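1st attempt posting a full record on here, be nice pls
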Amino acid sequence: MFAFSLDTDEETQIITYIDDTKNLESNETNLGYRELRLINVHNVEKLKYEIEKATKVYDNHGYIHMLDKNKSIVTSTFISKARIIKSKQNNITLSGYVWHPPKGFLKAWKMYLNNEVTEKNAWKRFNKDELQGWLVFTGCIRKPEIDRENIIIQLDGNNFHNLDEFFVHWVKK
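the predicted structure (as tokens):
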């Protein structure tokens, strides 16, 4: 599940919940103009009203948040100059400049939230173009460990075939 909020100096106030989003990730660039599809927006009229109101005062920057089962925010994507360009039933298409994560990032979070990241080599479920997303995700959830002196790490080169797979293999150690 996802949610939308406007960027304010105050505490995050969720405007509406969203069942799913499309076109939020990209491997081409971290920041760029995007059209985002919001699937099954729970309160379409409130979202439209709040974005239109924010646009009038040039403060139409916001976030699309990914939520856990308790509706707590686990990660957010910033969108600047958000505008509604299409609305059909409960689906909305927004445009704006999006600071988007790499492909695979949201897939990794969904797996994590569904307790599907419990076995070794879970990253092997990702397509080659999704490995950057897995790497960024692991950086978000890794807990610092105690430094160990004189540690020896051996990596089997047969376990990876490109640089992304090498880093994925390295991070899991």
